[in-house]
């Protein structure tokens, strides 16, 4: 079969509101995460330099701030941001019912 399917909310969250789909979709290189968050949800500053993974963040609903190398990028529904592997990033949501998709790969 040339494809795999899943529903993100059928995947056990690895952190509150974070659904990692790589294993469920049997991805070899691509990581895909769905985040459901309310106002006040905050991630941890990190980078992906060791794995050489760039990431794309797409906000589907709500409001978020993605801080990249210390610079705050405000996101509204439909906004997308690509982040270099060696750049630090930190994500925070400022609206209840926010939903985002994050994809990353080398």
Would you kindly provide a written description of the structure presented here, covering whatever features stand out?
The structure is a single chain. This protein has 106 residues and is mainly beta. The protein is built from no helices and eight strands. It has strands at 18-20, 31-37, 54-61, 64-68, 71-75, 80-83, 89-93, 98-105. Strands 1-2-8-3-6 form a five-stranded antiparallel beta sheet, with no helix packed on it. The chain has a three-stranded antiparallel beta sheet with strand order 5-4-7, with no helix packed on it. Strand 4 and strand 5 form a beta hairpin. The model has no long low-confidence stretch (mean pLDDT 96).
Features:
106 residues; globular
Strand order of the largest sheet: 1-2-8-3-6
| Gyration radius from CA atoms, angstroms | 14 Å
Terminal Cα span? 25 Å
Largest β-sheet summary: 5 strands, antiparallel
Oligomer description: single chain
Mean pLDDT across all amino acids: 96
Helix/strand/pairing category = mainly beta
Question: Helical segment tally?
Answer: 0
Any idea what the shape is?
A: globular
- The helicity comes to under 10%
Q: Could you spell the SSE succession in H and E letters?
A: EEEEEEEE
Beta fraction: 35-45%
> pLDDT below 50 for ≥5 consecutive residues: which ranges?
none
How many strands appear in the DSSP assignment? 8
